[in-house]
């Protein structure tokens, strides 16, 4: 269970004098007692029938409650008390034995990172709080304390104190002083973990969290699953009763930690918080644009954390608002606190691949690591050729559906074939709407209205609608033009492209479903109620047109590589890139969109002629 996020932490030491000086911890203890009162009321409700039964039996012994009616009441209450006690015992047993969720991490022993452990211990001494029991890394831009005091986690080597979980990108992008400033409010949270009331309230809430989803665990029989669902309902009821108090308790200890950490590197903390947001942006861009294509090709980059530095350095070069960030690279990075940064980066990169994409826990022939120097050849080129092959396979199926003659005329996999298929006649392309403030075309250039069934052409201003309907229609059209006008990119401009995009989307959806089925069947689920790998899949939203544009771009890149001196490359912010004479071809995308959306091949053909690409040559497919 997470106790906090980056930038806020917990209070100070567990002594009454230290904790009592911070209002945040006093408020947190008050909320913790409220959570424990909910537990006490639940326990009281469970033993209430038994207490009534004891009173009735005591009345029989003393001669006050005699007679048939009292005997019936005693037996009824006794049976009810036994059932309620059995149900309460079952709920308590499940809550006590349920395994709370833990974050998948890469453990950092003191041997692997002695300087980092020393930094955290010194920081805890400055804050006057106990040091965390262990340190672990997670492929995320966040840091928090995680309680692993459950016996199942202790068997795995975790002690009873909280574990400090650090986002691995922080170690590579941040400097040592910045990392210390970011971790200060988080490390301060080890103090409240020693407070008995707060610790008991947290254990109770964690147990309820785990018990609420026990019914979703695999391997349960029908009878056990039915009982687990009943326990889950009770757990969720208790969570609703104490959820507000638990949230306020965590806010209180977080405020206390931030207050305590203000004395530690206050100036550096302000700069470090800026680096947190920058690292998050670079990490998200790296995962979605660079890592995800590699994962889909069965390769996982083994240096994701080092890639964050390259991505953010590229961002600082492109964005004038990021000036000054690259000058920080001369200072000592926090990854120097590790004995073997490369091995730790590789382990964190593999964990990121499993978390966000799924896959085996170890490298293999179909799941191999890739260095950044080999990324263009092993990922970019293979991705382009796989997309080009998929595009031509879909075209072959569409041609086969039209008839044997169309299938025979399909021909070799060339770029010309795709250009011909997506090109529309000039008179069929929609004219762009007039720009605001420009007059409409003259009458001589306006299209002639279509004739009616009887051959007559309606006069201008004539309408078959009544006057009031025409006025209403006119006002509705004006309102639609102002507010609800459909954007031009959503209109049907190229029917051939829409048909191809739909077929391509269906093909990709089937492949993704098959891949997810293989991952689910072959990957072991994470030990906890979070579910099987991947826990946080990255699925970038893509429309059919976007998917078709990506495949056409891949085919163009394959043709450029095969017929010219172009080469696949890597852009740290945008992923796969085509290099023409060593320079990224940034002007290719709008030309492909003109073909896909408008059916106009002229811009793309001009680019092909300028770069020397021969579209009639067959493309080598994967």
Element-level helix/strand string: HHHEHEEHEHHHHHHEHHEHHHHHHEEEHH
Structural class: mainly alpha
Contiguous runs where pLDDT drops below 50 for at least 5 residues:
1-20, 155-159, 435-490, 524-530
What is the strand arrangement across the widest sheet? 1-2-4-3
Strand content: 5-15%
- Which radius of gyration do the C-alpha atoms yield? 33 Å
User: Helical element count?
Assistant: 21
Distance between the termini: 45 Å
Describe this structure in words.
This protein is mostly helical and 622 residues long. The chain is 58% helix and 6% strand. The protein contains 21 helices and nine strands. The strands form three sheets. Strands 1-2-4-3 form a four-stranded mixed β-sheet. Strands 7-8-9 form a three-stranded antiparallel β-sheet. Strands 5-6 form a two-stranded parallel sheet. Strand 8 (575-580) and strand 9 form a beta hairpin. The longest helix has 40 residues, at 23-62. The chain is flat. It starts with 15 loop residues before the first helix and ends in an 11-residue tail after the last helix.
List the helices and strands and how they pair.
Elements: H1 16-20, H2 23-62, H3 68-97, E1 106-108, H4 114-127, E2 134-138, E3 143-146, H5 151-155, E4 163-167, H6 168-173, H7 176-187, H8 190-193, H9 196-211, H10 222-261, H11 266-296, E5 299-301, H12 304-318, H13 341-356, E6 368-370, H14 375-402, H15 404-408, H16 415-422, H17 467-482, H18 495-522, H19 544-563, E7 567-571, E8 575-580, E9 583-584, H20 588-598, H21 602-611
């Amino acid at each position: 269970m997470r106790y906090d996020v980056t930038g806020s932490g917990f209070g100070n030491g567990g002594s009454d004098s230290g904790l009592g000086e911070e209002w945040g911890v006093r408020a947190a203890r008050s909320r913790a007692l409220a959570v424990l009162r909910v537990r006490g009321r639940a326990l009281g409700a469970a033993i209430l029938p038994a207490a009534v039964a004891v009173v009735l039996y005591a009345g029989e012994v003393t001669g006050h409650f005699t007679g048939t009616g009292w005997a019936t009441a005693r037996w009824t209450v006794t049976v009810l008390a036994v059932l309620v006690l059995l149900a309460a015992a079952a709920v308590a047993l499940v809550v006590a034995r349920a395994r709370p969720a833990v974050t998948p991490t890469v453990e950092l022993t003191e041997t692997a990172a002695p300087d980092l452990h020393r930094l955290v211990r010194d920081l805890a001494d400055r804050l006057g709080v106990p040091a965390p029991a262990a340190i672990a890394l997670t492929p995320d831009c966040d840091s928090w304390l995680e309680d692993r005091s459950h016996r199942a986690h202790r068997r795995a080597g975790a002690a009873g104190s909280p574990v400090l979980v650090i986002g691995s990108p922080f170690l590579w992008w941040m400097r040592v002083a910045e990392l210390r400033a970011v971790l200060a409010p988080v490390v301060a949270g080890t103090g409240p973990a020693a407070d008995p009331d707060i610790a008991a309230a947290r254990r109770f809430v964690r147990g309820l969290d785990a018990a609420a989803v026990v019914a979703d665990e695999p391997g349960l029989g029908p009878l056990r699953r039915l009982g687990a669902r009943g326990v889950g309902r009770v757990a969720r009821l208790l969570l609703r009763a104490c959820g507000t108090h638990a949230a306020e308790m965590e806010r209180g200890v977080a405020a206390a930690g931030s207050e305590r950490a203000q004395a530690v590197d206050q100036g550096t903390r302000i700069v470090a918080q800026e680096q947190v947001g920058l690292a998050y942006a670079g990490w998200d861009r790296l995962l979605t644009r660079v890592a995800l294509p590699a994962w889909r090709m069965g390769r996982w980059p083994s240096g994701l954390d080092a890639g964050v530095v390259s991505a953010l350095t590229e961002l600082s070069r492109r964005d004038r608002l990021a000036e000054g960030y690259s000058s920080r690279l001369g200072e000592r990075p926090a990854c120097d606190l590790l004995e073997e940064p490369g091995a730790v980066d590789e382990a964190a990169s593999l964990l990121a691949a499993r978390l966000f994409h799924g896959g085996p826990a170890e490298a293999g022939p179909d799941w191999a690591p890739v260095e950044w120097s080999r990324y263009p050849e092993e990922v970019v080129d293979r991705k382009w050729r796989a997309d080009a092959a998929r595009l031509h396979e879909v075209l072959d199926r569409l041609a086969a559906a039209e008839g044997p003659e169309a299938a025979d005329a399909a021909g070799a996999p060339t770029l010309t074939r795709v250009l011909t298929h997506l090109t529309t006649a000039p008179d069929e392309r929609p004219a762009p709407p007039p720009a605001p403030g420009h007059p409409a075309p003259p009458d001589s250039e306006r299209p002639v209205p279509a004739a009616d069934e009887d051959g007559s052409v309606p006069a201008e201003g004539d309408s078959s609608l009544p006057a009031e309907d025409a006025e209403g229609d006119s006002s509705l059209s004006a309102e639609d033009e102002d507010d609800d006008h459909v954007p031009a990119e959503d209109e049907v401009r190229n029917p051939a492209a829409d048909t191809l995009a739909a077929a391509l989307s269906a093909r990709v959806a089937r492949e993704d479903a098959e891949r997810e089925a293989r991952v689910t069947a072959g990957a072991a689920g994470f030990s906890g109620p979070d579910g099987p790998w991947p826990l946080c899949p990255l699925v970038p939203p893509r429309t059919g047109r976007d998917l078709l544009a990506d495949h056409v771009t891949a085919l163009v890149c394959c043709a450029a590589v095969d017929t010219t001196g172009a080469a696949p490359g890597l852009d740290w912010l945008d992923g796969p890139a085509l290099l023409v004479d060593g320079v990224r071809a940034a002007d290719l995308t709008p030309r492909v969109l003109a073909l896909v959306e408008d059916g106009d091949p002229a811009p793309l053909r001009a680019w092909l002629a300028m770069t020397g690409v021969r579209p009639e040559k067959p493309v080598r497919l994967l």
